[in-house]
Design a protein that fits this description.
397 residues, alpha/beta, 8-stranded mixed beta sheet, 3-stranded parallel beta sheet, 13 strands, 46% helix
């Protein structure tokens, strides 16, 4: 399993997939970047998964990303070759984007007979357009790379039906080889815990955001919404942003500028136990703004909020509605003020918040990782079936 974008076990989706495959009897090696700001060993085994990490400095700007990805490809190829020498040829190489051209790092393994699973996490062309506001030659190149990767994979794993449709219609993937493995929490591990009032820092309400904080994630709109919330109702709340990303320093400065620095906390990456403790109250919001990328994306944080029985306040995103339904309140527009008014509305109606939390717990049963794991194993089973069906001469090669 290869990931350049996030480290393990921090990437919750890839880690759940790796654990599922290991429990099903696969021998799993994961190659990933070291988590930024963390002291992680280059090699370790966790829960039966052999992890090999490489150092990588995150970049910004198109030129910076070219340097970052070039460096990552060299280091991934080296680690994959080392792992293959030690363990023998791999049967499957599982690529998690972005970027979409990670297959270049596994070219040797494919020549040795490995099948390719492309785990379609992000719409890279849309991600580029959201970050840089451009639709020129590089955007068209990213579309071409996406299409080549989708068509060349033996199996494509999509996070939702929107991604599946894009893989088939835009990417030209074989519909029979595209499986929807939704982001969903492990309901045996992600369960409510007793509230810790200290986390509210003496305030009546705790607001939480969980996830990566990049330019496309709308953290600026969330901070501005909290500034408006302070104008509407004062500071009877404390907000915590759990996660990390390149925009954090700017967002800390923005919170200070708005006069809410003392009620906005950036907690960094945390483990499941800390996350569950922070999600102990009933008032939550998420920040992703409307747009082609976020509209089509299913964020893992949404079903995690629901698993904890916590209501959600969100911008009106298509796939968020599919997941959350009536467990969320949706802002009437893309403006931060609209999000602030929805948060205020929920804080003023604890009975409604309670009902929304219960609806989330009811709905998440259909979004659990247990169901997604079954589809993941079905996808891997299709590779085994295809290999058994090949002529003996092809198998010998």
């Amino acid at each position: 399993m290869i990931s350049e974008n996030e480290g393990l076990p921090g990437d919750r989706r890839i880690w759940a997939e790796a654990r599922t495959l290991t429990e099903a009897g696969y021998e799993v090696t994961a190659i990933c970047a070291m988590a930024q700001g963390e002291d992680q060993p280059r090699r370790e085994t966790l829960e039966g998964i052999a992890i090999r990490r490489f150092p990588l400095r995150a970049a910004s700007g198109p030129a910076g990303y070219v340097r970052e990805y070039a460096q990552a490809l060299v280091r991934i190829r080296r680690l994959a070759a080392e792992a293959e020498r030690e363990a023998g040829p791999f049967d499957v190489v599982h690529l998690s984007n972005p970027p979409d051209f990670l297959g270049l790092a596994a070219a040797a393994q494919r020549r040795h007979g490995a099948r390719i699973v492309f785990d379609h996490h992000d719409l890279v062309p849309e991600l580029y357009r959201e970050r840089f506001g451009r639709q020129g030659p590089l955007y068209r190149l990213l579309l071409a790379i996406e299409r080549r990767t989708l068509r060349g994979a033996d199996v494509v794993i999509s996070t939702n039906e929107s991604f599946r449709r894009i893989a088939i219609e835009r990417g030209g993937a074989d519909p029979d080889a595209v499986f929807v493995v939704r982001n969903g929490p492990d309901l045996d591990r992600f369960t409510p815990v007793a509230a810790d009032p200290a986390l509210r820092r003496g305030k009546a309400h705790l607001l939480a955001y969980l996830g990566v904080m990049g330019p496309q994630d709308g953290i600026d709109r969330a901070i501005d919404a909290l500034g408006e919330l302070a104008r509407l109702r004062g500071d009877d709340w404390h907000a915590v942003f759990i996660g990390d990303g390149e925009v954090v320093p700017a967002m800390q400065a923005r919170a200070e500028e708005l006069g809410i620095g003392d009620v906005v906390e950036f907690a960094g990456w945390r483990g499941d136990d800390d996350i569950r403790a922070w999600l102990d109250r009933r008032r939550l919001h998420r920040a992703g703004p409307p747009g082609p990328l976020n509209d089509a994306s299913t964020m893992v944080k949404i079903p995690e909020y629901m698993a904890m029985g916590r209501p959600i306040v969100s911008f009106d995103l298509a796939e968020t509605r599919v997941s959350a339904g009536d467990a969320a309140l949706y802002a009437a527009s893309a403006e931060p003020e609209a999000l602030a008014h929805r948060i205020d509305e929920l804080l003023e109606d604890p009975e409604r918040a309670r009902r929304m939390g219960e609806e989330g717990r009811r709905r998440v049963a259909g979004l659990s990782w247990e169901q997604s794991a079954a589809v993941l194993l079905e996808a891997y089973g299709s590779l085994t079936a295809a290999r058994r069906a090949e002529p003996a001469a092809v198998q010998a090669v």
